[in-house]
Amino acid sequence: NFDTSAIALREYVYHTAITDCRIRNVSGSGIVVGTINMKNDYGIIDRNPHPEDLAHVYSVKKNSVVPAKITISNNLVDNCGITSISSCGILVYYGYQLEVCNNTVQRTGGSGIAVGWGFANNTIKKETPASSGSILIRGNRVVSPCMRVPNAGGICTLGAFLNDGLTIDRNFVDMNGAI
Fold first, then answer.
1. Residues 39, 97, 54, 44: what is their CA dihedral angle, to the nearest 10 degrees?
2. Parts of the chain with a pLDDT under 50
3. In angstroms, rounded to a whole number, what is the distance separating the alpha carbons of residues 170 and 157?
4. What CA–CA distance (Å, rounded) separates 12 from 28?
């Protein structure tokens, strides 16, 4: 199917682990967390919520829509973005307390691992944080990402993160085959 993901954790997902999976030949992204338009607890779509408005979301209440306490580890994600060319191996739109560790991601149309969503929303370049934070990307092996689109990265981030932020360390990225 066009733009179908192998595993998608959309809204209201907590305390979940995706481990030791083999994901191959996917038309869309391999693993997806969150959605482009996350809704806050009041049911309002808000692409760039204010940090003070996020305090209740990140208490990981059962009625919070933002995925939280997710572990993605020891997976093989290979050949994603077959028909949806900008698809990623692992894509996190929004999330909190996520660990993306010790995965092998290879041969993707877009970024190998992409985290964050949302752009600055005004003309004076004042960043509005994306509703993501406490994210760790560690010990991953990313080989031959960005095989179909040039505006991507081996590990790519977009948007600002909450104060407890994003940590990227001890990853291996080989851009062989990237356009």
1. 0
2. 1, 40-47, 49-62, 120-130
3. 16
4. 22
Exposed/middle/buried for 150, CB within 10 Å: 0-12, 13-18, 19+?
exposed
Helix (H, G, I), strand (E, B) or coil at 74: coil
| 82 CB neighbour count, 10 Å cutoff | 16
What pLDDT does 8 receive?
94
For the stretch 85-118, pLDDT in tens is 889 999 998 888 999 999 999 999 999 999 987 6
Q: In angstroms, how far is CA 154 from the centroid of its own chain?
A: 13
Residue of 145, 166, 27 lying closest to 8 (CA atoms) = 27
Gap between the terminal Cα atoms of the chain: 25
Residue 116's nearest CA partner among 101, 131, 137, 138 is 131
DSSP codes of every residue in 102-165: S-EEEEESS-SEEE------STT----B-SEEEEEEES-EEES--SS-SS--SEEE-SB--TT-
How far is residue 39's CA from residue 25's CA, in Å, rounded to a whole number?
A: 31
